[in-house]
């Protein structure tokens, strides 16, 4: 058996099967370290790690929790939002779950076909009001329970105190971003935009 040279230990794996998300994140951090200052590196690495975590958690939730109930992530998100707000206009639902009007239309078509929601015309006939059916409420509850269990599984490596701090940090970033976006919105009347 030959001994690896020190240089070969620093070479990242190159085959797609050998490269993991953690390797990508480390390689990205190294790249940023060569090009940017320390603050940029920390922010970039934190962002990459958060995106990686969110992507993997969403993918795991879809395959283990939502698809067995005929849902995708956006369908689950729509059902959950409707459990919180009872009745929503389609455009409000789209904004809440972070999808376009076109995307929400497709999601609602599937949910309605599957008997999970009903759509009724709104006050001005151009809007649609969305409500859960009894089956939609049941599926929302079952998938939410599964989602919570999965989240607990993913975060079991953190203490309860760390989970609170982690959630607080993410919330602070999201609130600051929402405030910044709101401050950057145009203030001119709609007719002048």
Secondary-structure element series:
HHHHEHHEEHH
Mean pLDDT across residues: 83
Widest sheet: strand order?
1-3-2
Gyration radius, in Å: 22 Å
- Biggest pleated-sheet summary: 3 strands, antiparallel
CA distance, first residue to last residue = 71 Å
Can you tell me the residue ranges where pLDDT is under 50 for at least 5 consecutive residues? 1-11, 188-193
Please give the share of residues in helix.
55-70%
Any idea what the shape is? globular
Helix-and-strand structural type: mainly alpha
Oligomeric organization of the protein chains: single chain
Strand content is: 5-15%
Number of strands: 3
**Structure annotation, total helices:** 8
Could you characterize what this model shows?
With 193 residues, the protein is mainly α. The protein is 67% helix and 7% strand. The protein has eight helices and three strands. It has helices at 6-10, 21-35, 38-66, 73-85, 90-97, 101-113, 134-154, 160-184, and strands spanning 87-89, 117-121, 128-132. Strands 1-3-2 form a three-stranded antiparallel β-sheet. A hairpin with a 6-residue loop joins strand 2 and strand 3 (128-132). Helix 4 crosses helix 5 (90-97) and helix 5 crosses helix 6. The protein is globular, with a radius of gyration of 22 Å. The protein starts with 5 loop residues before the first helix and ends in a 9-residue tail after the last helix. Residues 1-11 and 188-193 have low confidence and may be disordered.
């Amino acid at each position: 058996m030959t001994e690896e040279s020190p240089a070969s230990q620093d070479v990242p794996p190159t085959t797609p099967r050998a490269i993991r998300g953690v390797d990508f994140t480390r390689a990205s951090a190294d790249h940023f370290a060569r090009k940017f200052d320390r603050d940029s590196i920390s922010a970039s690495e934190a962002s990459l790690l958060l995106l990686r975590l969110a992507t993997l958690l969403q993918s795991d939730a879809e395959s283990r929790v939502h698809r067995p109930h005929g849902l995708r992530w956006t369908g689950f998100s729509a059902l959950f939002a409707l459990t919180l707000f009872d009745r929503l206009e389609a455009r409000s639902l789209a904004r809440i779950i972070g999808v376009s009007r076109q995307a929400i239309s497709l999601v609602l078509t599937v949910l309605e076909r599957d008997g999970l929601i009903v759509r009724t015309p709104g006050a001005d006939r151009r809007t649609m009001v969305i409500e859960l059916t009894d089956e939609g409420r049941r599926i929302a509850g079952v998938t939410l329970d599964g989602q919570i269990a999965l989240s607990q599984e993913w975060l079991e490596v953190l203490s309860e105190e760390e989970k609170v701090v982690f959630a607080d940090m993410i919330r602070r970033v999201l609130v600051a971003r929402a405030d910044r976006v709101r401050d950057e919105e145009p203030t001119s009347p709609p007719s002048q935009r």
